[in-house]
């Protein structure tokens, strides 16, 4: 990627060479080359979002969406830990980039292009949604949320897809700018919470947000409230005091039968996560020098304490 962009060719020749490189490296019938540094591909993607080449055929009879699809596919499916770390330094909220991502999600684009964009959005979710100011107006946010929901409905929900979906949803619901525009039926996607990594910033920000408990309760959907309680109980020992107090209060109310909520899911979720952590620890026990074992012991201890607290609140 670097050579075509850095050579002293005329600009149109540089981008043509870059497009040929991307086309060769990321076409569908080949294994994807691992992306170590995403910077060149981000420059490539930003150029196509910010130019007429995003809307016009650029290489004979080539699909005009292909350069964008190749770049998004490379970033979404072939980014290793180093590349993902580098993405944290990238600002996806510049106007041209925002317009480009929104354009891709519109329903007149190929599903594979939209799917790549959905996975890529999962990687930039915190930067996209966690902004002090709106990156677009309310009408555009509403349209974007509807378009995103449509793509979610159109793809297979593999584990990787669930991860991209739930990370994005956490970003949406944690933002007071975006939250009102979340498609109502998509709150049920909180059921994918187990797919999100423990260190996910959108997850962390959401469970630390005391506004969300009242927002979710006021929706009038007991099933969604139970999902939220289950998520919080998994993180019980890590919660900020205000959110922990809310969790305990709502759980007590539900246990007394005042809310129409069935709390069995919370306990079964705690038990399931405990079993998974213990099974994983068994693997680490064969490799005692692995630092992951210490992290797992802490997770198991926290889940056990959360389980005791839950049972005490609901049955004591």
What would you note in describing this structure?
The chain has a domain at 208-316. Helices cover 64% and strands 0% of the residues. The protein has helices at residues 2-6, 11-25, 39-49, 66-77, 81-87, 95-105, 111-129, 138-154, 159-174, 201-207, 211-217, 222-234, 241-255, 264-285, 292-315. Helix 9 packs across helix 10 (201-207), helix 12 packs parallel to helix 14 (264-285) and helix 13 packs across helix 15 (292-315). The termini are far apart. The model is unreliable at 1-9 and 55-61 (pLDDT under 50).
In short:
The protein is built from 15 helices and no strands.
Average per-residue pLDDT, rounded, comes to: 86
Low-confidence stretches: 1-9, 55-61
Report the sheet with the most strands, covering strand number, pairing sense and barrel closure. Answer: none
**End-to-end separation:** 63 Å
SSE diagram, text form:
Blueprint (H helix, E strand, L loop, with lengths): L1 H5 L4 H15 L13 H11 L16 H12 L3 H7 L7 H11 L5 H19 L8 H17 L4 H16 L26 H7 L3 H7 L4 H13 L6 H15 L8 H22 L6 H24 L1
Helix pairs in contact: 3-4, 4-7, 7-8, 7-9, 9-10, 12-14, 13-15, 14-15
């Amino acid at each position: 990627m670097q050579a075509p962009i850095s050579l002293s060719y005329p600009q149109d020749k540089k981008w043509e060479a870059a497009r040929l490189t991307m086309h060769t490296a990321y076409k569908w019938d080949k294994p994807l080359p691992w992306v170590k540094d995403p910077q060149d591909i981000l420059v490539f993607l930003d150029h196509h979002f910010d130019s007429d080449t995003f809307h016009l055929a650029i290489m004979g009879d080539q699909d005009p969406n292909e350069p964008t699809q190749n770049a998004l596919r490379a970033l979404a499916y072939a980014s290793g830990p180093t590349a993902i770390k580098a993405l944290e330094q990238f600002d996806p909220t510049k106007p041209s980039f925002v317009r480009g991502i929104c354009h891709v999600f519109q329903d007149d684009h190929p599903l594979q292009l939209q799917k790549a964009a959905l996975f890529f959005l999962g990687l930039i979710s915190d930067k996209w949604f966690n902004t002090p100011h709106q990156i677009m107006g309310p009408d555009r946010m509403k349209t974007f949320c509807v378009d995103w929901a449509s793509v979610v409905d159109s793809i297979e929900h593999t584990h990787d897809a669930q991860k991209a979906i739930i990370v994005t949803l956490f970003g949406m619901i944690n933002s007071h700018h975006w939250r009102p525009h979340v498609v109502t039926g998509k709150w049920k996607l909180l059921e994918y919470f187990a797919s999100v990594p423990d260190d996910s910033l959108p997850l962390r920000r959401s469970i630390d947000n005391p506004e969300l408990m009242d927002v979710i309760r006021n929706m009038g959907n007991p099933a969604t409230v139970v999902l939220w309680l289950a998520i919080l109980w998994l993180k019980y020992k890590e919660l900020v005091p205000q959110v922990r107090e809310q969790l305990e209060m709502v759980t007590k109310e539900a246990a007394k039968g005042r809310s129409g909520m069935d709390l069995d899911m919370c306990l079964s979720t705690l038990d399931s996560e405990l079993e998974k952590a213990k099974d994983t620890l068994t693997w680490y026990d064969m490799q005692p020098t692995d630092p992951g074992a210490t992290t797992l012991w802490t997770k198991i201890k926290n889940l056990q304490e959360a389980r005791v607290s839950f049972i005490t609140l609901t049955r004591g």
